[in-house]
Structure formats: structure tokens, C-alpha cells
Write a structure and sequence with these properties.
Layout lengths: L4 E5 L10 H9 L4 E6 L5 E2 L5 E2 L3 E2 L8 E6 L4 H4 L4 H12 L4 E4 L2 H7 L13 H7 L14 E4 L2 E4 L4 H11 L5 H13 L8
Parallel strand pairs: 1-2, 1-6, 2-5, 6-7, 7-9
Antiparallel strand pairs: 3-4, 8-9
Helix pairs in contact: 1-6, 6-7
Length: 197
């Protein structure tokens, strides 16, 4: 059993489906416990109408307990500034070499925190990042790919929830390379492998 936990950031309007594959497999296959982090401990409602109760507030996060910190997308990232306490938390995690994973619009949050500079990354498009983060640096490192992992930072397009999960599992060494490839093929292709019952 891993001693650290997967930390999942739940903010109002978060895109509830984008990290679902990752959370399920990290629990099921990786045997990680999940901590739901809120800006406060107040319950939040997802984009899909799910009410989620954070188990901890952002200011209470102990970096030594974090195996990976996952930021799902959501409209809020495009509509408001990132809270200074979130920027500070992300920078602390980066300094401690804790993996950070952001998908869809949450890539704007890691861009605003300055985490994309010098790292290969992806998002909903290079122009998307430039539009939503005027001081975005790192454009030369942008990669046209569903998901990218570079030195502890995992980024993904909004339609790449399966590839996002695959890269998080690879970062935490959940499943073998071949089993992750089979898992990705299964969930992306929607078909059981031949001979499977």
C-alpha cells in the first residue's frame, strides 16, 4: 500500500469526468487513497451537478503526503484569476518534486503559476493558452499531443481523459508499460481485447 495519497482539487464547477479514469485506476490498481482538496472545506458542486465534500482545505495540504496533485478542468479557470494560495501550493509542490497533473482549462492554472516554462506540455491548443494566459511563457515547448509528461508535470487536452490517466499511472508506476498500453487501448477504443470474456 502506498504511504502517500492522491490529492484531487475540487473547486466550484470542476469538470467531474476529466480525472475519473485516473482516480479509479489509482485507487483500484495503485491502491492509493484519495484526498479531495477544496479551497476551503465547504462542499462544492461540479459542472455535472455532483456535490463533493472536500476532505481537506488547500492550506492544510502536507506536501509530504502528496503522491500526485490533480487539477481537473472547468470554466472557472478561464473566467477568474488563480487564487494566490493555489499558486503558492503548486510552487511548493514543484519545489518538493511532487508530480502535478492538469487537464483542459486547468492547464491555464499551471501556466499562471509559471510551471510550464522549460517543460514540454500540452493544452487545448497553443493559442488557447496564449489567449487565456497573456504572460504565458513556454510556447516553444508546446506539444501537439493528447497528454504530455515532463519532469513531474502532466498536462492534457480536455478530450484526453484516458491519456491523462495513462500518464499519471506511468508517473506513479501503476501497472506495467504493457498493461497501461492495453488499458489505454481498451478505454480509448471501447473494445475488449480479442479472447477476453
Amino acid at each position: 500500500m502506498p504511504t502517500k495519497a492522491v490529492y484531487f482539487l475540487a473547486v466550484p464547477g470542476f469538470a467531474d469526468w476529466e480525472a475519473a479514469h485516473a482516480l479509479a485506476e489509482l485507487c483500484r490498481q495503485g491502491h492509493y487513497r484519495v484526498q479531495v482538496v477544496g479551497l476551503t472545506r465547504d462542499a462544492v458542486k461540479s459542472m455535472g451537478g455532483l456535490t463533493v465534500q472536500p476532505t481537506t482545505a488547500l492550506v492544510e495540504v502536507d506536501p509530504d503526503d502528496v503522491a500526485v496533485f490533480i487539477l481537473p478542468g472547468g470554466d472557472r479557470w478561464e473566467q477568474q484569476l488563480v487564487e494566490p494560495e493555489l499558486v503558492a501550493a503548486l510552487k511548493t509542490l514543484e519545489t518538493r518534486a511532487v508530480p502535478i497533473a492538469a487537464i483542459c482549462a486547468a492547464t491555464t492554472a499551471v501556466a499562471r503559476a509559471g510551471l510550464l516554462s522549460g517543460r514540454r506540455h500540452t493544452s487545448n491548443g497553443r493559442e488557447y493558452l496564449k489567449h487565456h494566459v497573456p504572460d504565458y511563457v513556454g510556447s516553444a515547448m508546446y506539444v501537439e499531443a493528447p497528454a504530455v509528461r515532463d519532469r513531474g508535470l502532466i498536462t492534457a487536452r480536455g478530450l484526453a481523459d484516458v491519456e491523462f490517466a495513462q500518464e499519471i499511472m506511468a508517473e506513479l508506476r501503476v501497472l506495467s508499460d504493457s498493461d497501461r498500453a492495453s488499458w489505454t487501448s481498451l478505454f480509448r477504443g471501447g473494445r475488449l481485447p480479442s479472447g477476453a470474456a
